[in-house]
Amino acid sequence: MTTRPSAARKIDQICPAASEVEILVVDRNDYHNIRVRNYEVDLSDVTIPLADVLDPIGVNHMRAEVQAVDPSERDRHGRLLVDRFMRATGLRHVFAAGDVASSVIDGIHSTVMSCQFARPMGRFAGHNVVADLFSLPMLPLQIDSYVTVLDLGAWGALYTVGWDRQVHAVGASAKMTKQIINRERIYPPRTRSRSDLLAAAAPTIQGPPTARTPQA
Ligand SMILES: Cc1cc2nc3c(=O)[nH]c(=O)nc-3n(C[C@H](O)[C@H](O)[C@H](O)COP(=O)(O)OP(=O)(O)OC[C@H]3O[C@@H](n4cnc5c(N)ncnc54)[C@H](O)[C@@H]3O)c2cc1C
């Protein structure tokens, strides 16, 4: 979901003639689903209308089903292989990000289907697709850290760092970190403010959230 605001942000910097470029989001739904935070039964809080995040930044959207993308190469999970600019291998004008794409992110490891990778991939893909269109330098995405924070219910959570998953924090403090991710980081700004939305789409990489000490 970060790809389109990021493309809009780059266009905002370049300021081409309005008729020169259009960003159109095609989605089978007219809302963006945030994964559930607390196993909610009422999903209205985790369903964000596309209009709320796209209209303020001038991005058009239509409800339709994408029938097929025909990549020359896929990984074993069926994901499109993309280079460090999020450009699909063998498809000159296709960029991909998130769960549908696979990129070697630190020279060794491939991206994992998770918000940790999907969000920066989207921000870089949007930036780069516009840069490519206007023959401007693209930004390579490199992420050197990897964490997992597993929610274990009432007991708390398990927070590990590194690809060999060294334990970093457990219990209530790890749970607080999980909640920073699930309740703050994965949400786009919901202020309908153009500047908030474009700022959140900057092609940057957030550091891993720090473990917090729960208040007594
Ligand atoms: C229940 C659940 C819990 C999760 N928990 C975690 C977690 O704790 N930590 C973590 O890091 N990750 C978690 N994930 C994974 C994380 O949510 C995904 O990695 C992330 O959402 C991927 O973002 P995305 O933009 O690539 O895809 P999505 O957010 O899935 O967005 C894809 C969009 O494409 C649209 N679409 C799909 N196919 C078509 C089509 N053919 N035509 C038109 N539109 C289409 C969909 O409607 C959707 O809007 C969880 C996922 C689930 C389902």
List strands and helices in order, with pairings.
Elements: H1 3-14, E1 24-27, E2 31-33, E3 47-49, H2 50-54, E4 60-63, E5 80-81, E6 101-102, H3 115-133, E7 147-151, E8 157-161, E9 166-170, H4 171-185, H5 194-200
Parallel strand pairs: 1-4, 5-6
Antiparallel strand pairs: 2-3, 7-8, 8-9
Helix pairs in contact: 1-3, 1-5
The structure holds flavin-adenine dinucleotide.
Describe this structure in words.
The structure is a single chain. With 216 residues, the protein is an alpha/beta fold. The chain has 2 domains: 3-143, FAD/NAD(P)-binding domain (3-Layer(bba) Sandwich); 145-188, no CATH class. 27% of the residues lie in helices and 15% in strands. The strands form 4 sheets. The chain has a 3-stranded antiparallel beta sheet with strand order 7-8-9, covered by helices on one side. It has a two-stranded parallel ribbon with strand order 1-4. Helix 1 runs parallel beside helix 3 (115-133). The termini are far apart. The mean pLDDT is 89. The structure holds flavin-adenine dinucleotide (FAD). Flavin-adenine dinucleotide binds at residues 1, 26-29, 32, 35-36, 65-66, 98-99, 113-116, 118.
- Biggest sheet strand order reads 7-8-9
CATH architecture verdict of the largest domain: 3-Layer(bba) Sandwich
* Helical residue percent band: 25-40%
For CATH, the homologous superfamily of the largest domain is named as: FAD/NAD(P)-binding domain
Number of distinct beta strands: 9
What is the gist of this entry?
By secondary structure, this protein is α/β, with parallel strands linked by helices.
